[in-house]
């Protein structure tokens, strides 16, 4: 059974890596393989989830899917081999090569932190192998309905048990059911494998992306910060969809940063960013708001350069569109009304929007939860990072100012959108803030770290150059 589950992971990762290898522009500076594998692990899992849902629509949740998916990967291997495209070296880091004396210390620190995080992850899963409440009543329950339901698998979206949120997208349940199809039986190791893939895949993606775009030391530092966020690691063991969603948010930002690096040479990274945002929509409803925020960020950050803005939007939209159509079809054909949206009416919504007390409660909750985010028992990592930025300063050779503006605008719009959802839709506002705000912050935490470490100077820059605060150099 363990070998079969391992095969399911290898197949989805190979699927993502092979698709990325094919899509990676041939005239790019190179294909950094750690980044390609880290990005491919999550995107491949997302594509596998979509393929399984389409397979269920056509044939039902039969075991024939695993054989068909393995065949697809073998076909892609043949296509890649026949293409004979040799991967070039990875792009040179903007921040300069890592200091040879500092790098061994950072590698050792990263490995120690990774070992501690992995031990905490495994220990918590052994204590709570079924995850937490939302996994019981939604994600894994729906996976069991897929796996056991046969021709009646569509009953998983019945409105007769609205407390289970049957309107939610089904990437996570599909992946859990997929792991059981490979294993041939239900096993608690299936959802654990899905959780580990996205939890540690997000760490690998953050570290490898910064290693390719900035420097190895910068990637290791960012990876250690994410691994040292207890709430991120422990929430991964809850078997919820928030950590997978955080991966796809981060993947979108990474692909758009790669697009900014390439400039006008290609739109393929913008397309990949659209695919990642679409997979976020297929993971949780918050992915729709994220996609809108990214689109708005691209428009606002583009300024008067309409040609570049249109190019990025076309690429992003072309990658997003197939998954947008899938989500829309799911909402129309399968999903019952959303529990928050079903409570909306003009009079009630107007009353909520004009209630000063509701704004006060949400502002107070935002301030409190951000100030204590991370669950480390001391205080928020935000203050440590702020001090780090003041100490090292802003990079003078960072990614383009336009990408930095886009990422910052998108994340701020996402937080603002959640703010207005709380104000306008929540019946039990205090309870909802207490139960969900930390998870909403967790969803953007890896992306916020990526933005931060793209902005701040690397240790090598700090040791050789003057302190820069308040400016970056726009390379494109």
Description:
There is one protein chain. This protein is mainly α and 476 residues long. Helix 1 (2-23) crosses helix 6, helix 2 packs across helix 6 and helix 8 (216-227) runs antiparallel to helix 18 (429-455). The chain is built from 19 helices and no strands.
Describe how the helices and strands are arranged.
Elements: H1 2-23, H2 33-59, H3 64-83, H4 102-127, H5 133-149, H6 171-183, H7 189-213, H8 216-227, H9 230-236, H10 242-262, H11 268-281, H12 286-302, H13 306-333, H14 346-353, H15 356-371, H16 381-392, H17 401-425, H18 429-455, H19 459-464
Structural class, from secondary structure content? mainly alpha
Q: Characterize the largest beta sheet: strand count, sense, and whether it forms a barrel.
A: none
The portion of residues forming beta strands comes to: under 5%
Q: List low-pLDDT spans.
A: 86-95, 469-476
Radius of gyration: 22 Å
H/E element string?
HHHHHHHHHHHHHHHHHHH
The share of residues in helices is: over 70%
Total of helices:
19
Q: How far apart, in Å, are the first and last alpha carbons?
A: 50 Å
Number of beta strands: 0
Task: Provide mean pLDDT, rounded.
Answer: 86
Query: Judging from the principal axes of the Cα atoms, what is the shape?
Result: globular
């Amino acid at each position: 059974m363990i070998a079969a589950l391992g095969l399911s992971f290898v197949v989805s990762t190979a699927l993502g890596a092979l698709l990325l290898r094919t899509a990676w522009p041939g005239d790019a500076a190179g294909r950094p393989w750690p980044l390609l594998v880290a990005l491919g692990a999550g995107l491949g899992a997302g594509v596998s989830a979509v393929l399984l849902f389409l397979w269920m629509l056509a044939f039902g949740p039969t075991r024939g899917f695993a054989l068909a998916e393995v065949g697809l990967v073998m076909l892609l291997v043949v296509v890649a081999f026949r293409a004979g495209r040799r991967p070039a070296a990875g792009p040179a880091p903007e921040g300069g090569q890592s200091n040879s004396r500092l790098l061994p210390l950072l590698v050792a620190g990263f490995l120690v932190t990774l070992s501690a995080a992995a031990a905490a992850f495994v220990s918590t899963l052994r204590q709570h192998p079924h995850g937490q409440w939302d996994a019981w009543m939604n994600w894994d329950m729906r996976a069991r309905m897929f796996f056991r339901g046969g021709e009646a698998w569509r009953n998983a979206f019945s409105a007769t048990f609205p407390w289970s949120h049957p309107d939610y997208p089904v990437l996570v349940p599909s992946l859990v059911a997929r792991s059981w199809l490979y294993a041939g039986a239900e096993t608690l190791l299936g959802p654990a494998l899905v959780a580990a893939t996205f939890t540690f895949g997000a760490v690998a993606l953050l570290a490898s992306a910064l290693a390719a775009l900035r420097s190895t030391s910068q990637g290791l530092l960012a990876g250690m910060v994410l691994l040292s966020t207890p709430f991120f690691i422990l929430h991964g063991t809850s078997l919820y969809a928030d950590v997978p969603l955080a991966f796809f948010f981060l993947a979108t930002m990474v692909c758009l940063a790669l697009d900014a690096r390439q400039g006008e040479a290609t739109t393929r990274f913008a397309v990949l960013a659209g695919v990642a945002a679409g997979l976020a929509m297929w993971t949780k409803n918050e992915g729709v708001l994220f996609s809108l925020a990214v689109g708005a960020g691209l428009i606002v950050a583009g300024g008067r350069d309409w040609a570049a803005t249109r190019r990025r939007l076309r690429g992003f939209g072309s990658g997003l569109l197939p998954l947008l159509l899938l989500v829309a079809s799911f909402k129309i054909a399968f999903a019952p009304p959303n529990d928050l949206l079903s409570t909306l009416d003009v009079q009630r919504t107007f009353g909520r929007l004009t209630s000063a007390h509701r704004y006060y409660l949400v502002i107070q909750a935002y301030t409190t939860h951000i100030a204590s985010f991370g669950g480390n028992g001391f205080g928020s990592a935000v203050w440590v990072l702020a001090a780090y930025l003041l100490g090292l300063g802003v990079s003078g050779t960072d990614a383009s100012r336009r990408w930095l503006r886009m990422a910052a605008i998108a994340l701020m719009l996402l937080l603002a959108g959640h703010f207005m959802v709380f104000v306008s839709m929540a019946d039990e506002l205090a309870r909802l803030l207490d139960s969900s705000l930390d998870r909403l912050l967790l969803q953007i935490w890896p992306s916020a770290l990526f933005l931060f470490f793209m902005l701040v100077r690397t240790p090598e820059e700090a040791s050789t150059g003057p302190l820069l605060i308040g400016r970056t150099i726009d390379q494109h």
